[in-house]
UniProtKB/TrEMBL annotation, chain A:
This is ABC transporter permease. It comes from Bradyrhizobium icense. It is found in: Cell membrane. PANTHER family: ABC TRANSPORTER PERMEASE PROTEIN, BRANCHED-CHAIN AMINO ACID TRANSPORT SYSTEM PERMEASE PROTEIN LIVH. GO terms for molecular function: transmembrane transporter activity. Its main location: membrane.
Automatic annotation (TrEMBL), chain B:
This is ABC transporter substrate-binding protein. Residues 1-21 form the signal peptide. It comes from Bradyrhizobium icense. The keyword Protease does not apply. Keywords: Amino-acid transport, Signal, Transport. Belongs to the leucine-binding protein family.
């Protein structure tokens, strides 16, 4: 039990990143009925955009700024205008399949233009240790956790305490009524895509120093975040956050106390159990459909 | 008159065919991990091959014939590797090169043996050359050669009484873990943690927590390059102070590049390193860096050597004969003095295993430092 604190901190740090990515899933689903199966690749790409900027001699801080701006442009605006809008009119399923194709396209393009090999990526959190409750805890884990929590708190504040947030929620709950009462629905939906792009860029910035920059790194991350979103509740931002943290911690504890070899199965088992007993997810709300 | 014309045409045709055969390139087939988890392995291997071929062809080729290689991507997947080898063998290459992953070699070597052509590869799993395949040749030490040296180092130099073993759950990792576990038992070194991990694993937090809880005197790490870098970073993150020891894949150039400061202090036995205190190796390094603009790891050396094995063996035979190639290479000693491309004196035994100098290295301030040169056995 002596390493339980280490495992919890590491699990929460990873889980917080899953949560950020999972929040993107729920935001897009709520506002535009989009399931983005390229979400993992959306996390992988910003790191390479930042590396590309650094490659031409720019400092890391500038690479971060430009990387985030490029992410907003490509993964926010471009994704919505070039893929979601044209495909959504054909239904959710064609769009979901289109995002799968997009995932493959992004992965292969990165492999082609950068490298199939992993690349190192600088950390924005200093490497070192701090003492917490008598245990040595990695500063990087705490830093990642703190930044991820700050992002989530910021997002929650935006959604709950600002006019824009209320308009976004109104759009999510019922776009038709929102439009009638004067909410600029299209603008709110675009804002959601831009927020998702910002979140994946942030997740990329936090996780790539640990996982390394590699064209295939989005696969695991996208899957974990998708499971987290379902476990927590696909239609609730707070559910995605809870699901992300839960998956991160359960994954680490399972690897430590159950079996490393079967760790990949544990989140899936958790998913099955939760779907069986609570189909809407831990914090999700049941959705009824009139036929 | 008519028979005279026919005989003349036949003579001309045969002469032309012979001339064409003499001038035709010698076809080699390479199947390597150009993408997927082993991309570092495969790309270094490929670049080493290309560099050697460029050099040899620039000097007139082998017995007056140019070398020509086709590269195919196994995607680091044994199933894909097998399909690619099958496809490559349809073109009747002179020699098959690669792959680098032991699991892929295991499923592809029977195909080359069936075709009766030599198979020069990069896998290190002990079992590969133990099954009696007469066509399989290593470019690096097998685990049966390297692991005893590592265990001896941990016992003699580090005086460790307990170790944690972290290994990747594939043919390469399991082979290494099995051999070194037996070696530890000989020295009465207790294994306090025996951790299997997955190829491509990204998160090593739980594994390192287990290592911390086991509090070993040393940690033996036997993972692929990218995972080695990730676990080194995590070991540093969780402030594990025990010495970190491994084999070639722990202290390679790519690991150092990926792990950064976290690689400092890692040590291990390497069969090949561009930091070896050997003039020909230094010259190779310079040529490689000039061509590719990065320092290769051991796989670059392996690919390079594979081609010079082909050259030396063919020149020893005095003809291009795919069927006799393996017989000639068994028991052959290639001296660096007469074939500089082989870099160090090397001997191949009857199983296709290799004997040459080895090195004990430590990563100091981001660079491999050779601490000890282990001599060739025979």
């Amino acid at each position: 039990m002596s390493n339980l604190l280490d495992l919890l901190v590491a699990g929460l740090a990873t889980g917080a990143i899953y949560a950020i990515v999972a929040v993107g899933f729920t935001l897009l689903w709520q506002t535009s009925q989009t399931i983005n199966f390229a979400q993992g690749e959306f996390v992988m790409l910003p790191a390479f955009l930042m590396l590309a900027v650094m490659h031409v001699g720019a400092p890391f801080w500038l690479a971060i700024i430009l990387g985030i701006l490029l992410s907003l442009l490509l993964l926010g605006l471009g994704f919505k205008l070039l893929l979601v809008d044209p495909m959504l009119r054909h239904g959710v399923l064609p769009l979901a399949i289109a995002t799968m194709a997009l995932a493959i396209g992004i992965k292969e393009a990165v492999k082609q233009f950068f490298s199939a090999e992993a690349s190192p990526f600088p950390s924005i959190v200093p490497v070192g240790d701090v003492s917490v409750l008598g245990r040595v805890v990695s500063l990087q884990s705490l830093g990642v956790l703190a930044l991820a929590i700050a992002a989530v708190i910021g997002l929650t504040a935006l959604l709950n305490r600002t006019s824009i947030g209320h308009q976004m929620q109104a759009t999510a709950q019922n776009p038709t009524v929102a439009r009638i009462i004067g909410v600029p629905v299209e603008r709110m939906i675009l804002l959601t895509f831009l927020i998702n792009a910002f979140l994946v860029a942030l997740a990329s910035l936090l996780i790539t120093p640990i996982y390394l920059a590699k064209f295939s790194s989005g696969e695991v991350l996208g899957q974990a975040a998708f499971i987290a979103a379902i476990v927590g509740g696909f239609n609730q931002v707070r559910g995605a956050i809870a699901g992300g943290l839960l998956i991160g911690v359960v994954d680490n504890l399972a690897a430590a106390y159950v079996s490393t070899q079967y760790r990949a199965a544990v989140p899936l088992i958790l998913l099955i159990v939760i779907i069986l007993f609570r189909p809407q997810g831990l914090l999700g709300r049941p959705e009824e459909r009139t036929v | 008159m008519r028979s005279g014309i026919f005989a003349g045409l036949l003579l001309v045709t045969v002469s032309a065919a012979t001339a064409f055969a003499q001038g035709a390139p010698i076809k080699l087939a390479d199947v390597a991990e150009l993408s997927g988890g082993g991309a570092t392995v495969g790309n270094n291997w490929k670049n080493g091959i290309d560099l050697a071929i460029e050099e040899i062809n620039g000097k007139g080729g082998v017995l007056g014939r140019k070398l020509e290689v086709t590269h195919a991507d196994s995607q680091s997947n044994p199933g894909v590797a097998r399909a690619q080898v099958q496809k490559a063998l349809d073109n009747e290459p002179y020699v098959l090169l690669g792959p680098g992953y032991s699991g892929s070699v295991k499923v592809t070597s029977p195909l080359a043996a069936e075709a009766g052509i030599a198979h020069i590869m990069g896998g290190e799993a002990a079992e590969l050359t133990q099954g009696g395949n007469k066509f399989l040749f290593r470019t690096s030490f097998g685990q049966q050669s390297s692991m005893p040296k590592v265990a001896k180092y941990i016992n003699d130099e580090l005086k460790a009484k307990s170790v944690a073993i972290v290994w990747v759950n594939n043919d390469f990792g399991k082979g290494g873990r099995d051999v070194i576990s037996k070696e530890f038992a000989k020295y009465n070194i207790k294994v306090t943690a025996d951790l299997s991990t997955e190829a491509g694993q990204a998160d090593f937090a739980a594994d390192v927590s287990k290592i911390k809880a086991a509090a070993p005197d040393a940690v033996f790490i036997y993972l692929n390059e990218e995972e080695s870098a990730r676990i080194l970073k995590e070991l540093k993150r969780q402030a594990v102070a025990a010495p970190l020891v491994g084999e070639t894949t722990l202290v390679g150039q790519k690991v150092v590049e990926l792990a950064g400061d976290a690689a400092n202090g890692a040590r291990g036995h390497v069969g090949l390193t561009t930091d070896a205190p050997v003039d020909l190796v230094k010259a190779f390094r310079e040529k490689f860096v000039k061509k590719y603009n990065y320092v290769p790891d051991h796989n670059g050396l392996k690919g390079y050597l594979a081609i010079y094995m082909v050259k030396a063996t063919t020149e020893k035979m005095g003809k291009v004969d795919a069927k006799k190639f393996a017989d000639t290479l068994h028991g052959l000693t290639i001296k660096a003095a007469s074939e500089p491309g082989i870099l160090m004196d090397v001997t191949f035994d009857e199983k296709g295993d290799i004997d040459r100098q080895g090195f004990l290295v430590e990563i100091v301030e981001g660079k491999q430092v050779v601490k000890q040169v282990l001599p060739k056995l025979n």
